[in-house]
């Protein structure tokens, strides 16, 4: 007998058992009724009925109705809206107003507004930096307004010395410089760097990277020697010169930095180092 036939036979046993029990009960009832209808003069004692325990009739549980699988209707996919093409980036505003406003926002707004020039800012910055890296001053391309107070000297023992009031002329400029956030300045430089590179290519002096120009310009100023005060000067009726030949032999940018005074020069150098280090990272 195969496993399938055995399984099928075992599954039929409960039903066969129930049928057999019902058959026995029906026969017993039938024979009991037949014996009552037959007249007898001396009835014989009936044998004791077998103590058969009737099992309750078990009603088979109804089979579950077969599930009717309804055909799945295709799910309507929502219509996909076309993805809009990204808009082209707005052109960088390189107008003087936009550049100056961006610079003012890096530090003390009102103070810086008094000193920064209003026209051709990016070109002035490029030309001035390129000249500074060549140890020259491009006065016509300065990015800051000159101080309104005049350079002052005093006479003592038949000699002329720089008055400390001359150094104080540059104190507001130094305070404005210190107020400028270095990281914001570098970020601003990165924003305008493509335009700066284009201007530098027009100015052109054979160098390809304007970063090198800035690095050379800053290092040149940092090489300016520190001089104790008072500082002796002389005049040839046109301009003042340093009496010390070592100082007079310095480049025009370095001599200009000396004129800001020892304390201002120290603060300027500290800011320049900070900017140089940030550019190097």
TrEMBL record:
Residues 39-88 are annotated as: Disordered. Pfam families: DUF3014. The keyword Membrane applies. The chain crosses the membrane at residues 12-32. InterPro entries: DUF3014. Keywords: Membrane, Transmembrane, Transmembrane helix. It comes from the Bacteria. This is DUF3014 domain-containing protein.
